[in-house]
Amino acid sequence: MGIADDLHKLEQLRRSGSLTDTEFQRAKTILLENPPAINAIPMSPFVEEQLAQVRIQNELERIDREWEIEREQFRMTGRRGRTYIPTIGTGIGMAIAGGFFGVFWTVMAVMMAPVIPDQPPFKIMKFAFPAIGVIFTVLAVGKGITACVRAQKYNDAFLEYKERRLRVTSPEKSGQSESDFTQMA
Residue 41, by phi and psi: left (phi above 0), alpha (psi -120 to 50) or beta? Predict the structure, then answer.
């Protein structure tokens, strides 16, 4: 007899009036908090092995679900709203390309400064154009560094995820016996 059967019997007793709603809730809570031990039921070795495999599969599925949630925090949004997992190469590329463009802009703006007239509407452009290049350079390099840091954190988290899976699938490699695992489940 399983928990479902016990709950069904409790529900029948409540409907028949043998249990009040309060008594039903109390009995249901006790039953759910202290389910009958599955080890109390004698099982064949084949059933025990199958049960252990089901527990392992459930644990792997739980780890995979947690990883899917965790990996979302590492995603970056690119142009057109597309998200991606950054790589160190992407971060370096962003820093180099954006930095190169920003430096190029700044150099060109500084070289053009003597040609710009000193009249009031144009005078501010002598400083604004080079400043735009410097700001662009700083932002591009910062974005590249951020992508590299996030990529490294992603790689570390991915390795930890793989180790968690390995501990479940190969308990002897992690120093954990399979009986320890089944007791956790």
Answer: beta
pTM for the model: 0.60
Read off the pLDDT of residues 82-123 as tens digits, 9 standing for 90 and up. Answer: 988 889 999 999 999 999 999 999 999 999 888 888 887 788
Give the mean model confidence (pLDDT) for residues 1-29: 79
> Which residue's entry shows tokens 């009995």?
27
Quick one: tokens of 12?
């029948």
What residues are paired with 77 via a beta bridge? 83
Asked if 122 and 116 touch (Cβ cutoff 8 Å), the reply is yes
3-state secondary structure the chain: CCHHHHHHHHHHHHHHCCCCHHHHHHHHHHHHHCCCCHHHCCCCHHHHHHHHHHHHHHHHHHHHHHHHHHHHHHCEECHHHCEECCCHHHHHHHHHHHHHHHHHHHHHHHHHHHHCCCCHHHHCHHHHHHHHHHHHHHHHHHHHHHHHHHHHHHHHHHHHHHHHHHHHHCCCCCCCCHHHHHHHC
Compute the distance between CA of residue 41 and CA of residue 179 in angstroms, rounded to an integer: 17
65-82 pLDDT per residue, tens: 999 999 998 888 888 889
